[in-house]
Amino acid sequence: MKTSQKSLSRMRLSGLIKKEIRQILRDPSSIGIAFFLPVILLIIFGYGVSLDAEHVPLGIVIEQPSPEANDFVSGFKDSEYFDPVFFRSIQEAENALIQRRIMGIVWTRNDFARQVLKGKEAPVGVIVNGVDANQARIVEGYITGVWMKWLVSYARSHGLDIMAPVEVKHRIWFNSAVRSRNFLVPGLIAVIMTLIGGMLTSMVIAREWERGTMEALLVTPVRVKEIILGKVIPYFFLGMGGMTLSVFISIVIFHVPFRGSYLALGFASALFMLTAIALGLIISTAAGSQFVAGQIAIVITFLPAFMLSGFVFDINSMPFPIQVITHIVAARYFVSILQSLFLAGNIWPIYLVNCLWLAVMALIFFLIIKKKSHKRLV
Questions:
Q1: Which of 47, 56, 70, 200 has its CA 20 to 30 A from that of 300?
Q2: Which domain holds residue 319?
């Protein structure tokens, strides 16, 4: 008798899974969110969003031309970070800066060559557009780098005592090319999986209530846990398919290095997908309609994953109360795992701790679903 009940349970679960798969295939939006949305987001962020400052229009003003001043300015001509624009006076350059035609000004004064020949630091004026504070700091750093490099090179070639107070030797770990794409794309995978897991499943229970099919399910012999599993399993594999596509695009098209284990990536992705699906089901159970469920899902899943996960904004730079809030955002842990696996490799202390938190959150969410789900109409 127990075997019969167990077999019947499997049959019911199989039927519910087939029903949900057919529902997914009949709904083009589900397929679009799972497979087309990742491609669109990756293209937008991979090609359109960059934290790097390259080919910055930079105004150059040389009050008194000299071999020394021309040699210094050539450093900006040869740099991939700047597109120099020459002006005859500082007034013209300032007007161009106000009109946003250039992002900064390098201004060599009249006594530039004389100060250099005396072995002193020559006067160089630097004005940077500070509207975008992040880009202003980057541009300022690039200009300082060109200046220090030229100063040391000139001193050595002329036997002068002009030396930088500190000679910096750069060693950049994990992202030696300093490409923001290598930082953004792995984190974007977490946002994509949040959309697939949270947004799609947030509407499945609400859709059943709206269409009147939930009442029909409740009067059948199916159990609540079978209904939940029938929803979870199809969307789990749908989400893992979207994740696989995202990883493939990241590595093959955007050439983001992957230094970790694919098995470790798959396990962590499965944990995060279960967490996202569980959160989506909680929203779907609480909401009365698909529209309300979709709006709640955006606020509770997508926006925190985008803003508070470390995907774009450094968590350590946030106010302390916000840092505390980020600990309840599942995407925070998955972003840390992804950036570690892609750029650094299998850093097991980071990997295991974040996987543990994802497992705890998934367990808590599914316990909430179990408690809130009852086989009754009210």
A1: 47
A2: 2-49+179-372
Q: What CA–CA distance (Å, rounded) separates 218 from 78? A: 72
Which pLDDT band holds residue 227 (cuts at 50, 70, 90)?
Answer: confident
Please tell me the predicted confidence (pLDDT) of residue 2. Answer: 45
Which residue type sits at 50? Answer: S
CATH number at residue 71: 3.40.1710.10
What pLDDT, on the 0 to 100 scale, is given for residue 362?
Answer: 94
Q: State how far the Cα of 138 lies from the Cα of 149, in Å rounded to an integer.
A: 16
* CA atoms of 107 and 162, how far apart (whole Å): 20
Note the pLDDT tens digit of each residue in 298-351. Answer: 888 888 998 899 888 888 888 999 999 999 999 999 999 999 999 888 999 999
What would the pLDDT profile of 275-310 be if each residue is shown by its tens digit? 999 998 888 887 767 788 888 888 888 889 988 998
Do the domain assignments include residue 166?
no
Q: Assign residue 136 a region (left: φ > 0; alpha: ψ between -120 and 50; beta: otherwise).
A: alpha
Q: Mention every residue, 6+ apart, whose C-beta is less than 8 A from residue 202.
A: 280, 281, 283, 284, 287, 293, 294, 296, 297, 301
DSSP 129-144: --SSHHHHHHHHHHHH
CA-nearest of 98, 102, 257, 250 to 176 is: 257
Structure tokens at 307: 């803003």
User: Residues 57-86: what's their mean pLDDT?
Assistant: 85
Compute the distance between CA of residue 316 and CA of residue 298 in angstroms, rounded to an integer: 24
Indicate the average pLDDT of the chain: 82
Question: Residue 106 — φ and ψ, nearest 5°?
Answer: -115, 125
pLDDT at 52: 67
Residues near 223 by Cβ (< 8 Å), separated by ≥ 6?
9, 12, 375
Which one, of 145, 166, 147, lies nearest residue 69 by Cα?
Answer: 147
DSSP state of 172: -
Q: Is the pTM of this model over 0.90?
A: no
If asked whether residues 127 and 201 sit together in one domain, one would say: no
Sign of CA dihedral 219, 221, 224, 226: negative
Structure tokens at 169: 């030797």
Paired sense of beta strands 124-128 and 104-108, if any: antiparallel
Domain end call among 158, 191, 222: 158
* Residue that finishes a domain, picked among 114, 129, 158: 158
